[in-house]
Specification:
The structure is a homodimer. In chain A, the strands form two sheets. In chain A, strands 2-1-3-4-5-11 form a six-stranded parallel sheet, with helices on both faces. The longest helix of chain A has 17 residues. Chain A has twelve helices and twelve strands. By secondary structure, chain A is of the alpha/beta class. Chain A is elongated and about 85 Å long. The structure holds a DNA duplex (16 and 16 nucleotides). Chains A, B: GO terms for molecular function: DNA binding.
Chain lengths: ~350, ~350
DNA sequence: CTGAAAGCGCTAACAC
DNA sequence: GTGTTAGCGCTTTCAG
């Protein structure tokens, strides 16, 4: 019923190894026999068995993608499909399949990764997040297993290959943009400081402030999670500060929309009263009211390069680690205005 | 370096077959030896090799998820991460992995599916779309390979297991909602008629019209793709009809946002001048201006059930095909109003 | 209750 | 250029 390499070999009057070589298109086989074997394969409807091939060749032709499925990384966020699309496009052109893992907790992720690695389910792994002191990443390093990460690793930066934006720089830029519009009371809305991306962006923000001689005020630090839990409360308390912010640096357009909605409920207008800048430049941000000034971080590219580097490493494990920086672009729209209070 | 079942066997003074039985928790092994073997496994850091197991047992413990990566299925749409989350949650609790395939064209998808099936990469497949006359689905049926689909199959409905909303009914309902508000000029914005979901929803829409005695006008049929390509043009020509619509039934909140944005540019107010209803109930739709009345189709559930049914079929191939209908809910918000022209 | 041994379908030396 | 053969690591009869 199942047609194997032996059946093909018999039918084509060659040895199984010859068929195997035809499959891998070995140059040591004459075009004539290649042609004949391929015809038989076609005729018999032969398809190589991945498991058997993996077992014998010790390569699975699949890469694992670790995608945190947590409250932190809101799943309704288009970030993930977009990176995935990048990864899968590259993987596919290199004939690699994608094995997806979505753990909810750190332990679950760790468990899945170890079993993927030890059980040889995949040839390499791309990590879609970078958190401080991550045992999964440590495990991967210690096991010397091929992996790349989307984001900057917390530790051993020089020893892992990763793809990232220059988050410090770009956040400094976008904060400067607000400063140049006359804003000095600028809040930073970000995710957990367990994630390196948050740390980097916060540093960029602080850098811009300090270069402009604006003191850092930690009342202006808002945790994204608080907004997701109870946005109204979080925004209310922010705007009820003695000197409420007139500018907001947000990490994600989705959060920006939500904040704007709450502000409007409080009769605070964007951009008239408060200016807001954000990241990710979702398609939608062009059409929202107001349209949002957002940093395009080239999500697709991030995924594409991460897969590309990973496959290079798989093919040549001695490759030196490297950092790929994906350029970003500030897309200026209508969510920012000059600070009205500038003369105060 | 790699610890195999033999190493464990030697260390525990049993035969490899015994270790194998311990792994599958065979009742024929005494608790005593189970315990001992497990200790050795732990101590040696043993992890079973998936490939070898698959090859010998002819089961991969992985399900394939086919996700069309096309312009039609805008990838920035949160639909996919959300179904995926449902699928992966269920798969994971059943100890199945997820193998992802994202083809861009019909042929690419077909190619990937055949190779997944014939190459025994997966034990079953969930199809994340249903299109008219789909050769991939036909192939799966003919090969008698376990699969489920999210959406209603075009053909052989009674012979495949699928998970869907009652799209005809719910679209009729939501159209009725508009009719009850006094709208008679109601446009339908939908995707390609190659997709069964579009066909069903269009039928629901037509049903509502006909029951209300409103003639169907095909000038009110707008193709979603046109909006994605050139929304401005599409909306302009719709609103410049002799009698422009005062109500809109849209297939996706994302499209709704975009339409609203174009309408506002034309100084047409939502909901004052035009009412709009939509599907998917994205998180965001609560915060958009105006907030959108949308059908919650329980995307997560759709995925969860599709995976559940698939795994049941894999475990018991003789199971009869069945249809799972996931209930929907209309979430009323602020994008609709009574028709001002009602007295005209 | 446990062991021995024969594969699963393929690849990769090693021959010739 | 092509064939022979010995595994890859596991499961599964069949014995005992």
């Amino acid at each position: 019923m199942i047609v194997t390499i032996k059946d093909v070999a018999k039918e084509a009057n060659v040895a199984p190894s010859t068929v195997s070589r035809v499959i891998s298109n070995s140059p040591r086989i004459s075009e004539k026999t290649k042609k004949r074997v391929r015809e038989v394969m076609e005729q018999l409807g032969y398809h190589p068995n991945f498991q058997a091939r993996s077992l014998a060749a010790k390569s699975t032709q699949a890469i694992g993608v670790i995608m945190p499925n947590s409250a932190y990384h809101a799943f309704q966020n288009p970030f993930f499909p977009e990176v995935l699309r990048g990864i899968s496009t590259n993987a596919h052109t290199n004939k690699y399949g994608i094995y997806l893992s979505t753990g909810s907790t750190e332990d679950e992720i760790f468990e899945e990764v170890t079993s993927m690695v030890q059980g040889r389910r995949v040839d390499g792994i791309v990590l879609l997040y970078s958190r401080v002191n991550d045992k999964t990443m440590k495990f991967l390093q210690e096991a010397d297993f091929p992996f790349t990460v989307v984001g900057r690793p917390d530790e051993n930066e020089e020893r892992v290959t990763y793809v990232d934006n220059d988050n410090i720089f770009i956040t400094k830029q976008i904060t400067n943009y607000l400063i140049k519009l006359g804003h000095t009371n600028i809040a930073f809305v970000g995710g957990s400081l367990d994630f390196v991306v948050t740390i980097d962006r916060l540093n960029g923000y602080k850098l811009a402030l300090s270069e402009a001689g604006i003191p850092f005020n930690d009342e202006y630090l808002v945790n994204e999670e608080l907004i997701k839990e109870n946005g109204k409360k979080a925004i209310t308390s922010l705007m009820n500060l003695q000197s409420p912010p007139t500018g907001l640096v947000t990490q994600d357009d989705l959060i920006a929309y939500e904040i704007i909605s709450h502000l409007e409920n409080m009769k605070i207008r964007v951009p008239d009263d408060v200016s807001i800048v954000s990241f990710n430049n979702l398609l939608l941000s062009e059409h929202s009211k107001p349209s949002i000034t957002s940093v395009d971080i080239a999500i697709y590219q991030l995924g594409y390069e991460a897969a590309k580097c990973l496959i290079e490493i798989i093919k040549n494990p001695d490759l030196l680690p490297r950092r790929i920086t994906i350029p970003t672009k500030i897309i200026e729209r209508k969510s920012c205005a000059n600070n009205k209070n500038i003369s105060m």
